[in-house]
Amino acid sequence: MKSEKLFIFFGATGNLFTEKIFPAFYHLIRRRKIDNFRILAIGRRFRDDQSYKSSLHQSLSNKIPNFDSSVLDGLFLKTDYYQGDIYDPQSFLSFLNEYHLKNYQEILFYLSTLPSIYTRVLRLIEKINQQIPSNIPKKIIIEKPFGFNKDSFIHLNQLFNKLAPERNIYYVDHYLGKDTVQNIIVLKAENWFIENLLSARYVKEIRIVVSEKEGVGSRGQFYEETGTIRDIFQNHILQLLSLIAMDIPPLCQEDKIECSSFIGSMQQKKREVIQNLKLPDTKKIYLGQYQSYIQDISNPLSKTETLIRLPLYISSQRWSGVPFWIITGKRLAKKISYIEIIFHSTTSNENRMIIEIQPEEKIDLVIQVKIPGKSLLSSPVRLNFNSLGTFGINSPEAYENILIDCYRGDKTLFPDSQFILHSWEIVDKLRNLINKEQIKVEKYADNYYYAEDFLI
């Protein structure tokens, strides 16, 4: 048996794989973080291995600073391309007979396809499994959104469980791969005064913002299937909310990352937050669609939302009465994602903690200090942390963390099926409320408004 692990990527000619996943492998090899693996890339666009790798070479060389072709050559030696169609799987299954799957240490199936074909891909994987000895571990890695509603997720999860146990199913939310998001765990667990300040006693409100300048681009078909509620709210937003609001369990002193008791406790605490979420009055819900969206997707009748604003509430003593304002949208004036915690204050200049996720990864604490020579007059200042300024290095890209965690079997930052199930319950309730109250999708000008402009 080979010591290598085999990644099998479905959708390997799509935007996600070529723009995010494959460049992450390049950086991991360049930093010598990963070695014993192979990639089998399955796609439809390119006829052969040479044309596929030529396209990847052009893409990476154009976008990566200080590009090193020898690193990419090494990655290409580990990569095979197969032009296949999941609607005609027999030739692919025949090809796999020659690929000697039984010789690999572990096989990781990665779905980077449209959500609408997940079921068909999983049925293909079920057939592939028949060629793999039962003693070889298999992992299923799937990109959000995980279904379209609660019922569809239950169906997907049943298919997953036929292929692999829950511990080997990895639900990818790339926001959880970002270092600043991971830092929320350490910020709360190892700075106890911060964990204690995060409660209704001290916090006035919390804002969670995911603001994007670009539109849907080439993802029009995907976006018509999801909208911003399924694309961003169901996963990124609810994950960020649960991390900042949960009662953090104590970190393990022996092995802080891979301690199973910590992972289990954290998943439970996140589920408790999601299970206690309450929707607001309908008057506080705003749905928007940027002006040029219908041209982008060539559908003048589309009612798909590209922006949502609403407050959420948590039914718990810790967070009683505190609104968690959610604002996420496309074609806004600025690309930025952050969590802003606004504290109760005795002055008009409120104390705030801002955890910026992108474009910079940093944490700011806004406090009041005395102005020199001005008696007791004060001014707000920012106490700032960022990785580059403090440690002299940039944080790794999110997909680097995701791939290495899947490779090593570290599930700290991956949601479990119960969290996803409860998140779909919230989305289904929100969707039902929108339909019942007939909340209209309003037009907004492209790249004119900031996310904060939509706050009440």
From TrEMBL:
Signal peptide region: none
Entry EC no(s): 1.1.1.49
Entry keyword Oxidoreductase: yes
Pfam families assigned: G6PD_C (PF02781), G6PD_N (PF00479)
GO cellular component: cytosol
Glucose-6-phosphate dehydrogenase C-terminal domain residues: 186-445
Pathway linked to the protein: Carbohydrate degradation; pentose phosphate pathway; D-ribulose 5-phosphate from D-glucose 6-phosphate (oxidative stage): step 1/3
Keyword field contains Zinc-finger: no
GO annotation (BP), single: glucose metabolic process
Sample GO molecular function, one term: glucose-6-phosphate dehydrogenase activity
Top-level taxon in the UniProt lineage: Bacteria
Record-annotated Glucose-6-phosphate dehydrogenase NAD-binding domain positions: 8-183
Enzyme type, top EC level: oxidoreductase
Descriptive protein name: Glucose-6-phosphate 1-dehydrogenase
The organism's taxonomic lineage, starting at the top: Bacteria, Pseudomonadati, Atribacterota, Atribacteria, Atribacterales
